Amino acid sequence: MYVAVKGGEAAIANSEMLLAETRRGDPALPEIGTAQIASQLSLAVDRVMTEGSLYDRELAALAIKQAQGDLLEAVFLLRAFRTTLPRFGASEPIDTARMVVRRRISATFKDVPGGQILGPSYDYTHRLLDFSLLATGGAPADAPRAPVDPGPMPHVLALLDREGLIEPERDSDAGAPVPDVTRDPTTFPTDRATRLQALARGDEGFLLALGYSVQRGYGRNHPFAGEIRLGEVEIEFTPEELGFPVTIGAATVTECEMVNQFKGSAKEPPQFTRGYGLAFGHSERKTMSMALVDRALRARELGEDVEAPAQDEEFVLYHADNVEASGFVQHLKLPHYVDFQSELVMIRGMRAAAAAGAPTAEPPLRVAVGED
Amino acid sequence: MTMSSTTGRPIADDPAVTLRRRWMAALARTERTSLEDAWSGLAAAPGYAHLRAPEIGMVMVRGRTGGTGRRFNLGEMTVTRCVVRLADGRLGFGYVAGRDRRHAELAALFDALLQDESSRPELMERVILPAEAAIRRAEDVAREKAAATRVQFFTMVRGE
Amino acid sequence: MTSLLAVPAAPGFADPVGDAQRAFRGLLDAIAHPGRIVSLDARVAAPAPLVPAAAAALLTLVDFETPLWLDAAAAAGDAPAWLRFHCGAPIVADPSPARFALVSDAAAMPRLDAFAPGEDAFPDRSATIIVQVGDLHAGDGWRLAGPGIETTCRLAVDGLPDWFADALRANRALYPCGVDLFLAAGDRIAALPRTTLVEG
Fold it and tell me: Which residue from C81, C84, C77 is spatially nearest to C104, judged by alpha carbons?
């Protein structure tokens, strides 16, 4: 049954005005600018760009301001905006080996060409609140500089690959079309490119929990952080009318390569396997979680039993998107007056039947129809 | 000939293409204000028309599984494009990340001007080389600050 | 110098957003009311042999994700460069992977089964064929029925091959698969989607 209910226009208009006032907060305080958000809340901007699936620092900062710092609402705003823009095409694949590296660590080898570069990291901070930040004013001292090692900084896993100790990662079919979850409905089983796109857009909290579950034993996994790197890569795009790639700008990305449990067969000697994470901005926890879940989702292709939630691609891919999840959870706020009336009628009838001594039946399962 | 990995089409392994890609990269990555200054500093600003007025859209940024494997879609990036035609018929293309219409237009104008071999040396000198130097300087600063956070391991010998 | 692909002399829509929205509205009206002749009021100077309605439809509907097939007459002149520039569409030599097709010489057009009819699971993965015809008139010719037509309507088309009406009936039998057609004459257009029944 569908019942149209009208009313509430004035209440909604006034609610929006109250929201604008609440968002602004105390007018005696200076209004926060999007440039400040982009610059000083940069990790929030990075998350919103990654899950909003649109690299644009200013727009992400605007979305965060408009959403009062609710990052999932900001992701939603960015996703909505991207649907208004035409897509000119797809970039050349970014080359993370040519990154201008600002951070690069490996948990598998102490001595790697290029070294362990901590970059800007919270890892070694003491997680003590810094009360000096309560007082504003005063720029921090310039970060020290040191001579740059002129040598190469190869991917750490390339070292294992050279010895044949890890499954190779090659572009075996360069001309194959690249699946796009924003264009085509997802059909199962999925390929890895589909999953990586969905995971890149996926909610960091959800992927973090799944990655954690994998480490705790829900899914065969024994990961090492082979390499995490952060820095800037050039983005190249080939316009149809030019026919050659042009650099359109640069983007900050984080990449995580996990080394996982071996696989071997009668024909192949055992090798390490891989999990991969890639995200816009400085998104380390996200890319590590993504790499763990990527590896877990490869269970089927690697001949492992699918037993744990993180290995179940339908479960993971259907629930990773926080815009979809938020919409379906929050739709429960919408009027369900008629649905609920029908349940009231039913439970009163069942109670009346029970009081009269009739056998009770199981209540029917509620199905999303009518007002839903 | 090499192959473009996006289109599978051959791209010319042509020094002229290489040079043009170089200046288009510098025009896209430099600040709009520096192009604006260079444009107003031209002895005579050429007349031009839009073959494609500045237009904001997106490019889907792709990565590779494991960094080197098959391509996958990471997420989109805003980009603004513009195509201009100078009075003499030369076309200039601007493709610039972000949503700055004027930047894309200026990039297209300088792309057109740089195709004229007589004015190219001066424009390379005044616009492209300084832009490349600024980009390289910023990258060098980032690398040097990163280098200062490189771990210098030393081993403590314990026991015998 | 360095552009490998010819860049067209002619501009596309004067007002890309407004003109494309107006053309889209017209195409929507046409396909929602099969057989109805709709003027697209297209202000576009496309290279020969493209007629304004076909050019406007292509500028509106085709982009880099929709491979475009052109018949020999359209593939010969300036049209490919113009379409590649303004639509960004890859132009394919074989009709089967095309999501859009332009037929400028209807008399020599391939049979409809040369184009993708979609799949049962994804009937949307089919081709939309824009056929340039001599003329369109309402009130006589084929009797059309089906979704979007209250009872029946009449449409007469000049310049189509003899087999066309039979091919439309065969196409309808493929439903939910099948191709969709637009017939363009000058700046007017009419649609024959796969759901339309053609009598006589």
Answer: C77
